[in-house]
Design a protein that fits this description.
By secondary structure, this protein is an alpha+beta fold. It is built from seven helices and four strands. The longest helix has 41 residues.
Amino acid sequence: MAEEKIKNKEKKLEEKQEIETEQPKQEEKVEKEDKKISEKKEKIIVEREYVVPLRREWLKVPKYRRATKAIKALKEFMARHMKVYDKDLSKIRIDVLLNNEIRFMGMKKPLHKIKVKAIKYDNGLVDVKLVQIPKHIEFKMALEARREAERLTKKTGKDIVPEKQDKTQEDKDKEQDIKEKEKSSAENEMKQEKEKAKLEKHTSSIEKKVPMHRKVMKK
């Protein structure tokens, strides 16, 4: 009986060792697969921006089907302009935010037109995204990031700062305009101060000297 127990323990230890050696191998396989997928996605052929008209297409359809027709029209537009083989609409992937933005006012009132960024990859797939994320969506995303950070801080006990989103080109342009205005205003103030100092010096030098007999008469 004692020998059987010892053998069972040895078997269990061997199984645990095999599992421990297999786990890192599986993790390495998964990492390699993820890398391959990312490499495929990173090979961008074309990247363009379009303003897609939608009204002409969804007016051909009853009101309760307008939003679905608008999305289909967007896919057809992208298949035509991005030169998708056989105009296969399944190769065009629309972002969730874009879909929600088109359906924001409901099925009966989709957007008339929308500005879009299209990216075509080497495998023939096309990703379609919004050029600029609306402010109300940015606000919601920031709230969600803060809540996740608060939950993680409660679990871990460490202060976690939510990641800031990349600034759009319009925001960067606005910041540059504000900086330029501040610089110009500071330069104008410096010029005005210099002119005032010059005038004060000039007036002080021009002032006529009061003769001595008049000073005596005032006393």
